[in-house]
Every structure is written in C-alpha cells, then in structure tokens.
Design brief:
This protein has 393 residues and is an alpha+beta fold. The protein has 9 helices and 16 strands. The chain has a 5-stranded antiparallel beta sheet. A hairpin with a 4-residue loop joins β8 and β9. α1 packs parallel to α3 and α2 packs antiparallel against α3. The longest helix has 46 residues. The chain starts with a helix and ends in a 7-residue tail after the last strand. 32% of the residues are buried.
C-alpha cells in the first residue's frame, strides 16, 4: 500500500503530465491553421476552456487586432481597462512575444479564482506557442499579399511593354531601332515613334524622375499627352511648352516626377532633323566621316519642373552614314566600382561598326563594364542611321 506522501506525489505528477499533454494538444490546435483570424480565435477558445475561465481576450501590442478576433466568451464591459501595469482582480495574463522581442499582444483570461502555479505555466506556454503560430500566420499573410502585388506588377509590366511601339515603321534609306529595359517590374523611361501624314516621323525619348511604379504611372500620362499632340501639327517647341504646362498643372506630386525628354521630327526626303531637348541628356549626332559627334543639348528645363517654360528647336541635316543616338541616363550611370561609364564612352561606341545590331552591342558592352551586376536604373535608347548613298542603312 502506498504511503500518503508518495501517493500525493504520484497524483501531482499525473496532474503535471495531464497539463503538459493539454499544452501539447493546445499547441497542436493553434498550429493547425495558417489563417491569422483562426489562430487568434483558437488561442482564446483554448485558454478559456482549458483554464475553465468565463472568457478570454487579447489586448493589442504591436499586432493590430480586430474586434471579431479579440474576445471569446463572457468578459466584463470594462475589459478594455485592463493594462499590464494595472492589477485588476479576476484577470490573469501572459505576453505574446515576437521574434524581435516586441510584445505582439497580451493574452488575458477572465476567472474569479487565481491561477495555480501549473495553470500559470500552462497560460505562459500557450502564449509562447501562440506567438509562434501568430508569426507563421503573419508571414503567410505577407506572402499572399506579396504574391498579389507581384501579380499586379507583372500585369502592369505587360501593359507597359504593350504600350511601347510594337513595330518600327519602315523609313526609306534609314534604319531605326530602340531598346528599353527596366530595373524593376515597371519603370519611368518612355520611347515612341509616330509616323505623320506628311511622311515625316516624330520620335520621343523621355525619362520620368525616379524609378518604379510611380514613375511608370507618370510615363503613361506623358504618353497620352504626347500621342494626343503628335498629329496636331504643332511645332516641336510649342509641343514641349504645352507638355510642360500640362505636367505642371497636374500638381505637386507630378512636379516631383518631372520628365526629361527629347522630341524629334525627321523628314526622310530632305534628311533634315528638328529636335527639342527639355532637360534631357544630350543626343549624339555623328557624321559618316567620324568627326566629333554633335551634341544636341537642353534648351530648357525638364517638363513639369517649372511653369511657363519655353524651348528652342535645333535643326540639323543627316548625311549618308550619319547616326543619331538618344538615351536615358541609365546607360551612362553604369559603374565599375567608382568608375562611371559616362557619356564619352557611350559616344565612342558610335564609331564602332560591329556586325551585330548596334543597341545589342551597347547593352552587352555595358553589362561587361559592370561585371554583369544588377541593373540599378531604367535603360532606354533609340538609334537612327542613314544609309550611305547606294548602300544599306
């Protein structure tokens, strides 16, 4: 026959074992779902039932809580008065601690009787398991939200790519190519070509300040304005002034996303080129004899930066074998350590006559220079070349 003391120890050990089993079962339940609302409800339900409490509730810490997941069972009307620093009879609590040591929330039960030591241990253990389950659920929600954002960005990228010219118009005696790559899913660079009824060709290359989605939205606004004006017969200087006014009138946020741009109009019969540079990098015009390229510099500030701006038209003739290169600063601001690729290196590439397509050669050269490092800015260029008399462009 067991002595009374030994029998008490056995009973106490059995109670502790039962409590551990209860905690394991409780942990299994709170980890059985990955939905945050279900995790929170399951924790409150488990705490109230296992500890025979009237109810349970959460008090938010760094984790935002909604009313439907904050309370379970019967709680007093003044339950919102509870704080960690206020001792109120009938309440017992445990802290849910996040992985950074922050307090996610306090798990509080409502029970007139104070908790025994084993019950307090159970509540602390439940809070520990709950914090882990909440962290997993929050991570899952963030992953789902990121997947939704990624799908939206992928769709935006496809839309933006579809708004670039899908084909290059045939221009007798000329070759015309362009290329555009973004450093994120979408970007603020824009290039377009628009054949006009008189046989001339209007071209634009633009760069919205910044990168990413906000700049992409502004580039699409710019596209709409440019397309609406392209066939209106406006001189390029008047078009630039009008585009500047429209962008300025969009308000302060648009002004922070000002646009540098070069507007061009080519007459392929007379081989004359009109150009307006609005705060953009200088375009390079190279003659066939390889003499120093002519730079078409800015005649006014970026579009949308200042009100009531005026711009000037430059006029040039493209001789046989002549080349024109427009580009955004993503091509010149490529680095190899502290060494920037720069305008001079880019301009020197025009004198090269590779067998491959010119812009493909430029992109490969930049990749080699950067050691195939990740692209840090949007990169867009347009290359125009007139054929040598009697030859191909």
């Amino acid at each position: 026959m067991l002595s009374g003391g030994y029998q008490s120890e056995v009973i106490e050990l059995q109670q502790k074992l039962a409590r551990v089993q209860s905690l394991l079962e409780a942990a299994r339940r709170v980890h059985a779902t990955i939905k945050l609302d279900d995790v929170l409800f399951g924790v409150l339900e488990t705490a109230a039932k296992e500890l025979e409490a009237d109810g349970a509730f959460f008090v938010a810490g760094t984790m935002p809580l909604e009313a439907r997941t904050s309370v379970y069972g019967r709680v007093p009307d003044d339950w919102t008065r509870w704080t960690e620093r206020t001792e109120i009879p009938g309440y017992s609590s445990a802290r849910l601690t996040g992985e950074r040591g922050d307090t996610l929330a306090h798990l509080v039960i409502v029970r007139p009787q104070p908790l025994s030591l084993e019950e307090a241990d159970f509540l602390d253990g439940l809070a520990l398991q709950s914090a882990l389950a909440v962290g997993n659920a929050q991570h899952h929600e963030r992953m789902l939200e990121w997947e939704r954002v990624q799908l939206d960005l992928d769709a935006a990228r496809a839309i933006q790519r579809s708004l670039l010219p899908q084909s290059v118009p045939e221009i007798g005696g000329y070759s015309l190519t362009f290329r555009s790559t973004t450093c994120y899913e979408v970007g603020g660079d824009y290039v377009d070509v628009a054949p006009l009824p008189d046989g001339s060709l209007m071209m634009v290359l633009a760069d919205v300040a910044g990168k990413g989605l906000a700049s992409a939205l502004m580039s699409m606004t710019f596209r709409s304005s440019f397309r609406a004006m392209a066939g209106a017969g406006l001189p390029l200087d008047a078009m630039a002034a009008r585009l500047n006014t429209l962008h300025w009138q969009e308000g302060m946020e648009a002004r922070r996303r000002y646009v540098t741009a070069i507007l061009l109009c080519l007459n392929p019969v007379t081989h004359t080129l009109e150009a307006v540079n609005a705060g953009h990098n200088p375009a390079f015009l190279l003659a066939a004899d390889g003499s120093d390229p002519l730079k078409i510099g800015a005649s006014g500030p970026p579009l949308g930066m200042l009100p009531d701006c005026t711009y000037e038209i430059e006029r040039h003739k493209i001789d046989g074998g002549g080349q024109l290169l427009l580009y955004t600063d993503g091509l010149t601001e490529v680095f190899q350590g502290d060494d920037e690729f720069g305008e001079d290196r880019l301009m020197a590439l025009l004198a090269h006559r590779p067998g491959e397509e010119f812009l493909e050669y430029v992109w490969k050269t930049l990749a080699r220079f950067a050691g195939n490092a990740r692209q840090t800015d949007d990169m867009t260029a347009l290359h125009l070349r007139r054929a040598v008399a009697g030859g191909k462009a």
